[in-house]
Amino acid sequence: MIESIREFFRQLADTHPKWNFIYIYDPGVGERVLEGFWLTVQLSIVCVILSVVIGVVGAWLQRSRYVWVRRFVQGYVQFFRNTPPLIQLLFFYFALGQFTPTYSPDGWLEQPVISNVGWAIISLSFFAGAFNVEIFRSGIEAVPESTIEASESLGLSHLQTYIYVILPLAFRVSLPALNNNLVNLVKTTTQAIVIAVPELLYQLVSIYNDYSTAQNACMVLMFVVYIGLVGILVLGMNRWERGMQIPGYGA
Hints:
This protein is mostly helical. It has one domain (41-244): MetI-like (MetI-like fold, Orthogonal Bundle), CATH 1.10.3720.10. It is built from ten helices and two strands; from the N terminus they run H-H-H-H-H-E-E-H-H-H-H-H. The protein has a two-stranded antiparallel sheet. It is globular, with a radius of gyration of 23 Å.
């Protein structure tokens, strides 16, 4: 069955050269696609998790009693929201990367401690995290002040009030906007190509550079994969939103 499918696409490439699905019938090329796809999935998952953590922590720090802490968080938000993610990737990798310590695994070649994949994770996580800070801040402001005062009157600390009272309620309000931002983050991972991260787009571009007739087929695959990834994320977020729903409050 598999061999007949491969043979079909071999013949398709011969009869219709502009539709060369070489990654289906060539195992070597197919392996490159799978490696790029797996790295894209890993990059998306790690960046989504880290950006949410940054958003939660940043929103909490915005309620700090110290002015310099609040100003630091606000400066971080303004910096990452008002500069393009592509520029941020280049800045982290080429500018800050110059100050990264190196190590030599074989005693000859020097390798940076943070690779291009590491810088992509850091840059994209901070970029999306800046938006998440504001998303969670708006959710926190939707929590009634009387609810916060009631929790503090019960003896809960500022941190305990945030974790057990404010954050669960704020999450329900923030989920629709958070869903939209995380979808944008998954799509933005394609920009990691500028620092040579071998994710899916990088692999597909290199494939159709090697086989010019495969360009259309590569872009079709790119389109389908990202529809699938974003679709899975949206379905998961919508299910989470329905599970956390409280009638008459928030989502």
